[in-house]
């Protein structure tokens, strides 16, 4: 189930998007030329928040944000699935809305200004959201200006994680091999004992590794008798 909360212009007054999106300007012969009419919309890359925060902001010589440099990609527009964990709404003379979202790999703020606030006021803490918008950087903080926000089923978080990680042909393994991943999985299961264990899907969402490798480590820990399943999909430490 999806609920379209709202759409916005995707712009604020703090920074400008000057990225060249590949559109070529026509010759100067046309007296009614409007650059906005031929400007291509930037690709909205599907990304995890943790990866976004690793990007390197690139500015113009005047100091205006242009894009995030991520490998060989210049990222301006992104598509994120995450949970809303905090919301701040200022309804004074200058309307302002801040929404903090978390996808288990990191947190990022969505910032909305002026009349655009009305488009996103129905977002609440606990909502799982699909967000499409422009990435920005201001005073050292990378954030998003949303264009579209939709409420979605929380299960889409794992689907998105799988989708992104399966698209990475050369996805890095844990720095010191499978032992680090095994220890990480074991620690998360141990720490969850206070809550009566942890669901397998939650463990996969909270672990930065390929879900297939996580499944392999879970199977190994079960076979070694270090953990057990009180019911399918629930893991507990056998201490």
What features would you describe in this structure?
It is built from six helices and 13 strands. The strands form three sheets. The protein has a five-stranded mixed beta barrel. It has a three-stranded antiparallel β-sheet with strand order 3-4-5, with no helix packed on it. The protein has a three-stranded antiparallel β-sheet with strand order 11-13-12. With 239 residues, it is an alpha+beta fold. α4 packs across α6. A hairpin with a 2-residue loop joins β4 and β5 (73-75). The radius of gyration is 21 Å and the shape is globular. Mean pLDDT is 80; it is low at 11-39 and 169-175. The relative contact order is 0.14. The chain folds into two domains: 3-22 and 34-153, Nucleic acid-binding proteins (OB fold (Dihydrolipoamide Acetyltransferase, E2P), Beta Barrel), CATH 2.40.50; 172-237, Winged helix-like DNA-binding domain superfamily/Winged helix DNA-binding domain (Arc Repressor Mutant, subunit A, Orthogonal Bundle), CATH 1.10.10.10.
Could you give the topology of this structure?
Blueprint: E1 3-7, H1 35-38, E2 44-46, H2 49-53, E3 56-59, E4 65-70, E5 73-75, E6 77-90, E7 96-102, E8 107-113, E9 128-138, E10 141-151, H3 156-166, H4 178-191, E11 198-199, H5 200-206, H6 211-223, E12 227-231, E13 234-237
Parallel strand pairs: 2-6, 8-10
Antiparallel strand pairs: 1-10, 3-4, 4-5, 6-7, 6-9, 7-8, 9-10, 11-13, 12-13
Helix pairs in contact: 4-6
């Amino acid at each position: 189930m999806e609920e379209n909360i709202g759409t916005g212009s995707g712009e604020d007054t703090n920074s400008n998007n000057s990225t060249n999106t590949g559109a070529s300007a026509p010759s100067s012969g046309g007296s009614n030329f409007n650059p906005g009419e031929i400007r291509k919309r930037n690709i909205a890359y599907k990304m995890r928040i943790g990866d976004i925060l690793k990007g390197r902001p690139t500015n113009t010589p005047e100091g205006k944000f242009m894009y995030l440099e991520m490998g060989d990609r210049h990222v301006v527009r992104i598509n994120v699935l995450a949970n809303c964990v905090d919301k701040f709404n200022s309804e004074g003379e200058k309307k302002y809305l801040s929404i903090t979202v978390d996808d288990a790999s990191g947190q990022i703020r969505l910032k909305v200004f002026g009349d655009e606030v009305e488009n996103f006021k129905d977002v609440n803490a606990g909502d799982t959201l699909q967000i499409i918008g422009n990435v920005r950087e201001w005073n050292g903080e990378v954030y998003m200006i949303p264009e579209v926000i939709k409420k979605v089923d929380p299960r889409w978080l794992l689907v998105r994680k799988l989708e992104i990680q399966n698209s990475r042909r050369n996805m890095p393994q844990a720095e010191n091999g499978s032992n680090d991943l095994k220890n990480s999985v074991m620690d998360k299961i141990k720490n969850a004992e206070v809550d009566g264990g942890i669901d397998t899907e939650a463990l996969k969402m909270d672990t930065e590794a390929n879900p297939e490798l996580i499944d392999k480590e879970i199977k190994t820990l079960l076979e070694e008798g270090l953990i057990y399943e009180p019911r399918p999909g629930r893991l507990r430490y056998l201490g």
